[in-house]
């Protein structure tokens, strides 16, 4: 566990005393893809509209309207570029401490194993199972309570998360992950962490291969096999996510955005951006301004 702690994503969701946050996402208006990533928090995502193919712990998983996605601590997940045309989702991301410290029977027997990766539920829970198990109803109650912020909503939110876990264990099949898969996941997490910390400069295949103690040739095959894209495609996809955010939320010039996200060649940046978002950076900025008005 100490090795995993070293490579945790450091994004804060909610507050230290109430570590849960709600997100409403639109694709491709906001993003052309969701770079594969991981975090210590649990994540519950409900597909409101559309469909896509997620990459979850090295496997392609199709999800459509009415399906529920459940990502436990440490699960690699994201949407590879080109795998979504129209998608609207609601998500809750919350730290396991929302469900206690792990020192009671619930923590030791249920929450702890899910957090440690010893127990894995299917990432995509199909619409029929979501509705029949009551998970959809719990999700809607959680959303209403959290956004309404009425008296005692913190108590209700925590109670609903416990109910969600109860329904997961009762109605959704689960399994234990193999040590072989765990080793592969750890290597990929280390590479992803390195990319996120160094995307603003030139990153070489040799550097990334060294993280896994592989030759460049073997590393490129390894990464492509499990991520369904080359390491350079992943690096550019992550840079595009950062660049899109800068274009939408700042007044930086396109040139400055390109340089800040690791592109020394502006023409190449424009080509990669247009391939990802099907419009130029300038057009993207204008479209996001129209949406916010």
Automatic annotation (TrEMBL):
Gene3D superfamilies listed in its UniProt record: Homeodomain-like (1.10.10.60), Jelly Rolls (2.60.120.10)
SUPFAM superfamilies: Homeodomain-like (SSF46689), RmlC-like cupins (SSF51182)
PROSITE patterns found in the cross-reference section: HTH_ARAC_FAMILY_2
Keywords: DNA-binding, Transcription, Transcription regulation
UniProt-recorded name of the protein: HTH araC/xylS-type domain-containing protein
Superkingdom per UniProt: Bacteria
Ranges for domain HTH araC/xylS-type: 189-287
